[in-house]
């Protein structure tokens, strides 16, 4: 497609690139006041580009150079570069169809493993931004301004791999966590997609329910990944293939090199309950989201503090690449006076509070105990197997000491 975007032409000007580079760290509002009526270009558009680059510098640094174009929605929905790099390690094939390209971060990295990239983008302006940015990175791709539905209707083309990231905010800023309400409706199009490629990879919101996802795409799920970056859930990624598949579940935390991954066929493991021992183990968010905690705890000989729980305990330290260890300093019933007394004895005014299977949220506990966030102490609150509210005062054990 031919790019006729006025913004592309503006960004291409050397004086605009110089302006963006020179004022890269200044506030957009300050620039608007200082240069109002003093420049011969669209100042609002350029200050927005500067502001977006400041937000995007950690998430998508490769797309923050002076010659690229960003947009608020494309930035918001773009994949973090570290996550895209990780996915590029296993999403491979000769011909790739990115069915919902957006800003193109995923195609940018996954495309390095393929011979031909075809990108679909339904929004005309977004397609022009994609074409412009790819040209700045010397990426050769076939970019088509169309929807996946219309692309399918136009005739069946074959690919090795299809990648789809359904729009979770179609027509509004409201986030959607129901797969069938997203655009495109990948459940409705599933059979069409499987007829076009041997493997179809679908990126889903980390807020979506794993059980609902499995139910929606069974029996075609070959792999289901829960991916976190520095213990923050980023996305759920599944690979579907034709026919009945035996699903492999993978929980990955990207926190340095190499990534740490736990893989399981999801064998039903019954939790081994225990009262608090010497240490508390808290699984990372990828393990929690993937519901692989019981499998992991069985492998690591951990005991759970409450049925189907996310707090584990042990008397032995073991290298925990998929979670954090804490030394339990006090095991107390959750009673305000008792907990405040301990805090006073330890001269605590700050604590990091976590609640699971509990009556109150961390903010409510903080108010009850008159604590502020932070510090070296951690307070874990939960309801045990006897339905009694409990609290554990703990201190984190650095990874290097495990």
CATH topology type of the largest domain: Rossmann fold
Shape summary: globular
Measured on Cα atoms, how large is the radius of gyration? 25 Å
Give the spatial strand order of the biggest sheet: 3-2-1-4-5-7-6-8-9
The pLDDT mean sits at: 92
Content-based structural category = alpha/beta
The first-level CATH class of the largest domain is given as Alpha Beta
Q: Could you name the CATH homologous superfamily of the largest domain?
A: Vaccinia Virus protein VP39
Name the poorly predicted regions: none
Major sheet: size, sense and barrel closure? 9 strands, mixed
**Number of structurally distinct domains:** 3
Summarize the amount of helix as a percent range. 25-40%
Strand content: 25-35%
| Name of the CATH architecture of the largest domain | 3-Layer(aba) Sandwich
Q: How many helical elements? A: 15
Secondary structure tally: strands: 16
User: Terminal Cα separation, in Å?
Assistant: 56 Å
